[in-house]
Amino acid sequence: MTKAPWIMCRSEIKVLDCTIRDGGLVNNHQFDDDFVHAVYNTCVAAGVDYMELGYKNSERMFDKTKCGAWRFCNEESIRRIVGDNATPLKLAVMIDAGKTDWQNDVIPKQQSVIDTVRVAFYVHQVPEATDMIRDAHEKGYEVWANLMAASTATEEEIDKVLEILAETPASVLVVVDSYGSMYAEQIERLVTKYLSFGRGTGKEVGIHAHNNQQLAFANSIEAIIHGANRVDASLGGLGRGAGNCPMELMLGFLRNPKFKLRPIYDTLERCVAPLQKNIEWGPYPEFIMTGQNNQHPRAAIEARENPQTRDHYVEFYDRIMMQQ
Amino acid sequence: MTKAPWIMCRSEIKVLDCTIRDGGLVNNHQFDDDFVHAVYNTCVAAGVDYMELGYKNSERMFDKTKCGAWRFCNEESIRRIVGDNATPLKLAVMIDAGKTDWQNDVIPKQQSVIDTVRVAFYVHQVPEATDMIRDAHEKGYEVWANLMAASTATEEEIDKVLEILAETPASVLVVVDSYGSMYAEQIERLVTKYLSFGRGTGKEVGIHAHNNQQLAFANSIEAIIHGANRVDASLGGLGRGAGNCPMELMLGFLRNPKFKLRPIYDTLERCVAPLQKNIEWGPYPEFIMTGQNNQHPRAAIEARENPQTRDHYVEFYDRIMMQQ
Questions:
Q1: Structural domains of chain A ordered from first start
Q2: How far apart are CA A294 and CA A181, in angstroms?
Q3: If you average pLDDT over residues A113-133, what whole number do you get?
Q4: What share of chain A in percent tops pLDDT 90?
Q5: What is the pLDDT of residues B170-209, one digit of tens each?
Q6: What is the DSSP letter of B150?
Q7: What are the C-alpha distances in Å from A300 to residues A179, A296, A319?
Q8: Percent of chain B predicted with pLDDT > 70
Q9: For an interface test with B, which of A313, A315, A320 has the most B Cβ atoms less than 10 Å from its Cβ?
Q10: Nearest by CB to A248, which of B225, B262, B285?
């Protein structure tokens, strides 16, 4: 065993803040500018490497009266917060297959303050995803590939997807545990596999974890131990359902002196804790149940949104177990 | 790598519920009989192996007007809940060095409904702890040895403690992460070390984790992977400060068909969730900070108990960092 590997830090590791993007799935992306600005300033002050602002979804597919600005991430919205972003913080948006008019809405990098485009897709969307990756790369962006819900794909499918992704210009392959169902041993296997396909072409591997089983932080550590150099986290774990890996835990673990915890706690105190009065996220029992049964969290989200069904754990347990 | 080790279960693993014992540190052990009875029935119905009811502390050292019955665990109090305990559930109490009149208060096993005595002690209390272990064993109990705050002891000290414990009649050596400061790699090293001392004399290794860094469940899994066959958990993670490993997560992970989740969710819904209106536990930022800095949670508990200081994360952060 290596002697006390936790004593030093690995400077190659870069952290992406997904507070606004994944958190937007909790409140239909309706964060006000003050909140987004606070998160932006916090990322800069804390030395976070990337900040993901939201989705660049098509205005023809999503109702602008119901979804906030961060569902669309127009250049104007972003510049209202970051100006020309004269900081070391890289800005990212997510485009997901089937919901994005990427041909038109992803504009050439020269005209955009965005640095990085993350392409999210399910196994059945690989053909479009590879087109999206190539398009965004040709337009001048750094591109990451996020295969969602990897826990529901077969090993053969994942192998094939990775074989295809290895030939794209994506620079990062992200292990995504959408349902928060994975244990450390599964993370180890996937990270090792993703690395084996990515290494030959100089790609890094990332981790995006969900906290259904209170394993988002632990699984992110596990991914790092096995070679992942890109990690997603969010302030207070803010994110859909059970939420994501909490930034305050991750930066403390990384021990890289470039990361500062104080600005994180400042924003947690002033902006994120008050938010919990209006919106909810975290590893509530309903999310444990969907996670442990490798299911999409939507049933749990619905159960918790309705005061008639929220915290009726046994009713929900029976429903989940009988539907299997 | 072993192929999908998570598919099967390991029947040697036994689970100890510490809801009332560790949870008692949150409310001065003032659970009413209905609650204790509910937890007892739940443990029986869920197939949990042990239930720890509290401390057997000296009435001369603790104020009976301030502490509830589960600080003392008199035979009468316990029998009021369990009768003669005609169930497969084993009952445990904890006796801690320096706070227990064990010579008098631990009565012979023939007169008691208690099965197991857990001796808790710090490194500097090993002489008394070994006396306590031998005494409880001679009186007829199964005895576990819980070296607390292992994260603050040197490797040399831990080696010496384990060398001494190996010669006692304790049947389980528990890795205790009192401050919730440990990462998986540290758990691996300690479990491996404890096993190396315990194996020759047929002792098992246990894990008692705290959730300061949301790692109680993950670290318990890690301990199991590396050979621990005894694991502590509590309903909803109820326990001091950030709490313990949640029982609902652990039983789902273990996959042993003898364990039933439905009774756990039933009691979470009816008894534990309502409790959260009156008492608080969980991985709040103050507990992250003491955990990440390997400190006793008492400063965090005090900060959160006072409405003037609760959720003042930056103030607390500055205090923790400057005191180092």
A1: 9-275 (3.20.20.70), 285-322 (no CATH)
A2: 5
A3: 98
A4: 96
A5: 999 999 999 999 999 999 999 999 999 998 999 999 999 9
A6: G
A7: 11, 8, 11
A8: 100
A9: A313
A10: B285
Quick: pLDDT tens for B135-171.
999 999 999 999 999 999 999 999 999 999 999 999 9
- B6: closest CA of chain A, how far (Å): 8
- Residue-level pLDDT at A2: 83
Cβ <8 Å between B215 and A219:
no
Mutate to test the interface with B, among A251, A288, A316 (most CBs of B within 10 A): A288
Report in angstroms the alpha-carbon separations of B237 from A168, B208, B264. 45, 12, 12
Question: Minimal Cα distance from B317: which residue of A?
Answer: A262
Q: What is the rounded CA–CA span in Å between residue B259 and residue B257?
A: 5
Instruction: State how far the Cα of B306 lies from the Cα of B314, in Å rounded to an integer.
Output: 16
- DSSP secondary structure, A185-246, as one string: HHHHHHHHHHHHHHGGGT-EEEEE-B-TTS-HHHHHHHHHHTT--EEEEBGGG-SSTT-B-B
Of A186, A214, A318, the CB nearest to B214: A214
Write phi, then psi, for A258 (nearest 5 degrees): -70, -20
Neighbouring C-alpha atoms within 13 Å toward the C-beta of B75: 13
- Looking at residue B281, its amino acid is W
Of B6, B185, B318, the CB nearest to A185: B6
The beta-carbon neighbor of A217 closest among B1, B213, B317 is B213
Q: For A213-272, how does the pLDDT look when each residue is reduced to its tens digit (9 = 90+)?
A: 999 999 999 999 999 999 999 999 999 999 999 999 999 999 999 999 999 999 999 999
Q: How far A63 CA sits from the closest chain B CA (Å)?
A: 36
Look at B288 and A5 and tell me if their CB atoms are within 8 Å. Answer: no
> What is the rounded CA–CA span in Å between residue A240 and residue A25?
5
Please report residues of A whose CB lies closer than 8 A to that of B318.
262
- Chain A closest CA to B298's CA: distance in Å? 20
ipTM summary value: 0.96
Strand partners, B231: B15, B207
DSSP calls for A27-76: TTT---HHHHHHHHHHHHHHT-SEEEEEE---TTTS-TTTS-GGGT--HH
Whether residue A78 lies within 8 A of chain B, CB to CB, comes out as no
Report the range of poorest mean pLDDT among A1-5, A110-114, A132-136.
A1-5
Q: Mutate which of A219, A221, A265, A280 to disrupt the B interface (most B C-beta within 10 Å)?
A: A265
Q: Is B248 on the interface with A (CB under 8 A)?
A: yes
pLDDT at position B2, please? Answer: 83
